[in-house]
TrEMBL record:
This is Acyltransferase. GO terms for molecular function: acyltransferase activity. It comes from Mycobacterium gastri. GO terms for biological process: lipid biosynthetic process. Pfam families: Condensation.
Length: 468
């Protein structure tokens, strides 16, 4: 494992106050963490990636690689404090060269001890809210990286994999450190975001579109369509993962989307709309979905939380094709709204803020590993390196779902509060979702406008995700 040197800890502790504000999504994360901590509750916050490298780990070379990574990306120079008034202060280490991680040998550890080590990654209110470690095996070693979401997002997983693996392999082959593309600045991104949002007014078209979305949804954020039970005091989270489509079905599903005049992403949101129609009879699917906000080549090789949220309203039409076209149009026409944090909308429309529960809406995210930046360099290596991505499995205050499209399959992962009612509801939701995906892939996607059990697809068959 690696831990910061005593001098680095002192530099982080004494770092001067910065005028750079946190991004809106960082501020949301920090305030949520402070609120949960005050209640004695935890929250899901870590992104963890693990991958294999052949041979015996050269600790000196890996130390160089880890320090180079941390010094390269300016997000790691920041630590945050949250005051009693929920005000957030950023402190910044001015000299990236002052960041130094040192190796510490822990000896043999059991799987549970290793898991505990990763899960004990310091909080986002600590500077060193990241952990790097290796597990040495007979003929290879496994690199494990755990980073709090405050500095990291899923899009960057492929880049950190390549930075660490390729830099290390180059050094071990006797070469000079590889010349990585110049990274951007997350601090500059935060400044641009706040300059843009500060110029918004109640009458700005982007703000009006957000307000219209909320008003059309009865003045509220979307809600999960099935009961979750009492979740306010739930202290653990649960995760379910399932295959939606195999390789052939994934290709057939994409063909159905293309034939309908939509992309795979439009099909994903159309299936969500049809799932909620089947379960709850909702004739319009309302969702808030995350999407990446990186906009320059430099930002695509920069660590940070480059995510915004955009509101979607998808009418359920007479067929999957019509619904997919509508979903694609809704998504494409709203991508610019990802630059408008909903907190800023509520600041400008306080009458809405009084009736809304901020940030507790369900979330559906789509990641396509077949398109850049993941496809070009990451995908060819992911299998050979036995790459795995994990969540920390802590308490989830809401239902979050990630649909992931790979060449060999399409999967869904859901996190949710760990209660019996929520568990049953999410299983039921994923069961219905898989049924919709499979029927679309098999060309059995015509529907009628009827509720729940009366929803009709042409064809028969049991496509249940959880048989029995």
């Amino acid at each position: 494992m690696w831990q910061p040197s005593a001098a680095t800890v002192a530099n982080a502790r004494d770092a001067s106050i910065s005028s750079v504000p946190p991004s809106y999504i960082q501020a949301r994360h920090l305030r949520r963490f402070a609120e949960q901590t005050a209640k004695g509750l935890d929250m899901s916050r870590l992104l963890i990636i693990a991958f294999d490298i052949l041979g015996h780990c050269d600790i000196r070379a890996m130390t160089y690689v880890i320090n180079s990574h941390l010094r390269r990306h300016d997000t790691y120079r920041s630590r945050f404090t949250v005051t009693g008034a929920r005000h957030i202060v950023r402190h910044t280490i001015t000299d990236p060269g002052a960041i130094e991680m040192q190796p510490v040998e822990y000896g043999e550890m059991t799987p549970s001890q290793w898991q505990e080590y990763l899960l004990s990654t310091p909080s986002p209110l600590d500077w060193d809210c990241f952990r790097f470690g290796v597990i040495q095996r007979d003929d290879h070693f496994t690199v494990c990286v755990s980073i709090d979401h405050i500095h990291f997002d899923a899009t960057f997983l492929g880049t950190i994999f390549l930075e660490i693996r390729e830099m290390y392999n180059t050094l071990m082959d006797g070469g000079e450190p590889i010349p990585l593309p110049k990274a951007g600045s997350y601090a500059e991104y935060c400044l641009r975001e706040h300059a843009y949002t500060s110029a918004l007014t109640f009458d700005s078209p982007e703000v009006r579109q957000w307000i219209e979305f909320l008003e059309n949804n009865d003045g509220s954020f979307p809600a999960f369509p099935l009961p979750l039970g009492e979740t306010s005091r739930v202290t653990t989270g649960e995760v379910l993962s399932a295959q939606l489509l195999d390789a052939r079905q994934t290709a057939d599903f994409e063909a159905a989307c293309t034939w309908a005049g939509a992309r795979f992403s439009g099909g994903v949101f159309a299936c969500a709309a049809l799932t909620e129609y089947e379960l709850a009879g909702a004739e319009t699917y309302y969702a808030v979905t995350p999407t990446g906000t990186r906009s320059t080549p430099a930002e695509f090789v920069t660590s940070g939380w480059f995510i915004g949220h955009l509101p979607l309203a998808v009418p359920v039409a007479a067929s999957f094709g019509e619904t997919a076209r509508g979903a694609q149009a809704a998504f494409d026409s709203r991508t610019h709204l990802a630059r408008v944090p909903f907190e800023r909308v509520l600041e400008l429309a306080p009458r809405l803020a009084t009736s809304l529960s901020r940030g507790c809406f369900p979330m559906l995210s789509f990641l396509d590993a077949g398109v850049p930046p993941l496809s070009a360099v990451f995908a060819p290596h992911i299998r050979t390196a036995n790459t795995r991505v994990f969540s920390d499995g802590r308490i989830a205050a809401r239902v979050c779902m990630w649909v992931n499209r790979f060449h060999e399959e399409t999967t869904v992962t859901a996190s949710f509060p760990d209660s019996p009612i929520a568990h049953e509801s999410v299983r039921r939701y994923l069961d219905a979702m898989k049924s919709v995906y499979v029927r679309v892939a098999e060309g059995r996607s015509e529907i009628r406008h009827r509720r729940a059990t009366a929803l009709s697809f042409s064809g028969n068959g049991n496509d249940g995700l959880f048989p029995g």
